[in-house]
Amino acid sequence: MTTSVPRNLIAIIGTTGVGKSQFSIELAKALNGEIINGDSMQVYRGLDAITNKHPIPERENIPHHLLGHVPWADEYSVQQFEREALQVIDDVYARGKLPILVGGTHYYNQAVIFKNSTLTESPGTGNYDERELTEEQLKVLDGPTRGIIDELKIHDPLVAQKFHPNDGRRLRRALEVFYTTGKKTSDLYLQQKNENEGNGNGDGEKEVALDARFRTLVFWIWSEQTQLNKRLDDRVDAMLNNSLYSEIDEMYEEYLKRGGDEETPDLTKGVWQVIGFRQFLPWLSSGKVSSGVLSECVEEMKRATRKYSKQQTKFMKNTLMPKINTVIERNKKEYSNDHNHDHNYNNHNSIVATILDATDLSQWSDKVAATGIKIAHEFVTNQVDNCILVDESDNALRELLVTPKQFDESQWQTFTCNVCENSEGQKYVAVGEAQWGQHLKSRKHKGTLSRVAKMKRNAEEMAKRGIVKKKQKKELEN
Q1: 44 and 68 in one domain?
Q2: Which of 6, 82, 375, 420 could bridge 348 with an S-S bond, Cβ 3.0-4.6 Å?
Q3: Which GO terms describe its biological process (predicted)?
Q4: Residue ranges making up the domain that contains 468
Q5: What is the CA angle 188-193-195, rounded to 5?
Q6: What is the pLDDT of residues 145-178, one digit of tens each?
Q7: Which helix (H) or strand (E) holds 359?
């Protein structure tokens, strides 16, 4: 049994606008911590309003890292973040402080919390010589997502249907892995799964089990969606009264400058993905003369923000929490099988997770701040290990801990609805059989089917009447 001192990490996750930054300051003050930004948009320079950086006066002199250090011209990857975050964590430890990872880009958080959570770090890619990308391959990777999907369908059809057609980042990464290693990404996922499980037989029956890098405490700050939606709408209004207009003007100027004689920047990459710029493009490109267009843009930004928050919750519930639960259960099993353990046993890669209810802001001090700080104190003093802490009487929070099976190939498929459209007027696409089944049962889908059927009946009736009238007219003429 190792006797070295474990390295603690606290991670604060949650949707946009739920209060992660506020809680991180309260926690850092209580535990002598420093904050590491885990938001993919807040790494870019400037744009404090549109990326929702925590205002400097509200940081209360707590050191913040990986915040506003990336130029707009750069694309910042999860692999870069992983390297930089781990270096910062080492530096924070060296100063005798506690690292606190905070952000809503949860694949960033996942890359730090777990070993082997990205394909670049998996045993599957590390054993192969990486090849230089050809000019033609770079052209495909830097081109439209549709071209990437078409190329993936040729080389790795299974992974081509794993991701949503709009998920350009992961589709691009999957093709890049194939180009540089010559191995199918779908094969590497399976190999990574088996090696993480210590299982080389490929039977695919076990849950994926990743190792935690650190002894980790995960706080999920959660709010009921209806209440959160109102706060998100209010936050957009506050951003408009702050410096959002000047920031989107600045971005638009750069957008036009970079376009020149070539294509304008890809809005699915880098800083251009930020919620707010794309939504205001119709107003900006129209010369900012129509108040009606402006109102539509504001509403579209609010819709996009609400939608993003729902996607974040789905990722935390369906991806991040199952992985956390798997590590916890495996560690418990290993501990129970260790005949030499004693009551002072401390797992160096254990995880404790808890959900704090931030629905009612009037109860923040008690239900979030005080409760969270108490749990954190218990964690750093080794009073809790390998468990999920949640009020058993709170059904809403317990429901968030449902852990669906991972690496289920039935989820590696997309389904397109021929009658329903998304907010952008595109055909609705579901990822996985579970999501497709939910869509088919949804009121939206059933309502659309009903409207389509009614329109068809009306059209048939009108056509029938037209034929009758034409026949009657012919009879009168005769």
Answers
A1: yes
A2: 6
A3: tRNA modification
A4: 411-477
A5: 95
A6: 888 888 888 888 887 777 778 777 778 878 888 8
A7: none
